[in-house]
Amino acid sequence: AHLVETGGGMVQPGGSLRLSCLTSGFSFGSYSMTWVRQAPGKGPEWVSVIGRNGEKSYADSVKDRFTISRDNFKNTAYLQIDNLRPEDTGLYYCARGYYARVPPSNALRGPGTQVTVSG
User: How far apart are CA 32 and CA 47, in angstroms?
Assistant: First the structure.
C-alpha cells in the first residue's frame, strides 16, 4: 500500500491550494482518509477526515476554509484549502483510516506535501 501527496507550494495569504493524496495497493473505497499537518517546530495537528461514505469532520481551526473530498474511481483524497493564512504553513500528509485525532505513528501515511503561506 502506498500514499503520496501533491499540490503543495508557496502562496500568499488569502490564496488557495488543492492538495491530493493519491493511493495505491489497497481498496481505497473501503477506507476512511485523514489529513494531518505539522507546522515547523510543532507537533502534528489533526485537520480533517472523510469517511467511506463521504461523511466529513474538520478541526475548528480550519472549518469553513478547508474542504475534504474523495474520488473513489481515482483512488484519491483531496483537501481544498481556501483563504490561506500564515499559520496554515506546514507539512500536510494523508493517512489511511478514520482518525478524529492525530493518527498513531504506525498508521499508513504519505511523506507529505509542503504548504508555505508567506507574502
Answer: 14
Report CA dihedral (60, 62, 53, 7) to the nearest 10 degrees. -160
As given in the structure block, the three cell numbers for residue 106 are 504506525
For residue 5, CA distances in Å to 28, 36, 60, 64 come to 15, 12, 23, 22
Contact 93, 111 (CB under 8 A): yes
Give the Å distances, CA to CA, from 105 to 44, 46, 90, 108, 109: 11, 13, 18, 8, 9
Mean pLDDT by 10 residues, the chain (119 residues): 97 98 97 97 97 96 96 98 97 94 94 95
